[in-house]
Design a protein that fits this description.
The chain is α+β, with helices and mostly antiparallel strands. Helix content is 19%, strand content 40%. The chain has 4 helices and 11 strands; from the N terminus they run E-E-H-E-H-E-E-E-H-H-E-E-E-E-E. Strand 4 and strand 5 form a beta hairpin. It is globular and about 45 Å long. The two termini are 15 Å apart.
Amino acid sequence: MRKTLALIAAIACCAVPAAAASGDGTATYDLLFRNGTLDGIDRGETLVYQRVVSNTAKPEAAERDTGKIVLGFESGQMPMATLDFRQDDKHRSLGTFPASVGNPMIMYFYESVVRDIAETAGGSPFYIRNRVKESLVQPSEVLSGEAEVDGRTVPTQTIVLHPFADDPNRDRMMGFGDIALTVVMSEAVPGWYLSLGAEAPGADGGAGYRSEMTFDRIGEGQ
């Protein structure tokens, strides 16, 4: 079964401001890391995501990281979710996670952003990771919007985080001080996440870095 998704607007502004609500730090975290988002997925199926990366400062890294991410399941006493990166005939395991907790795509998304910033701009990945983690528990506005899923208009919720907005080192981050992390979620999308995106200008204010992971379809088997 293929789920064709067409966002009504681009990732940076895909939430239609039909309504907005401010969540405290706990509400923000609970929405982003929602439990049970894989409970309704048949264990014989997979969730397929497309990742597209552009990075003017490190184009070879963008080419390396553009491809498919396939979420599958391993049976056992404790069902596990697996993430596998695929690019042409190349496969790379991204990790195994308890399926009962929720969709690990959110964890992979944030970790990939941390790695990309550290790889491109330098600096300590531990420092970068801590700033991102802090932003996950700060009060955030939740934007209500719409997206088209299989020809149906469905409601979405969007959270945009700016983890380095007040960081004292932002001017030395080659544009990543202005990075925006955007997560679009919907009950109508298997696995909860419609898209997970990160965007930052270049050091000169022009094109810089962009990473977008978008749900593509449900597949069968690994």
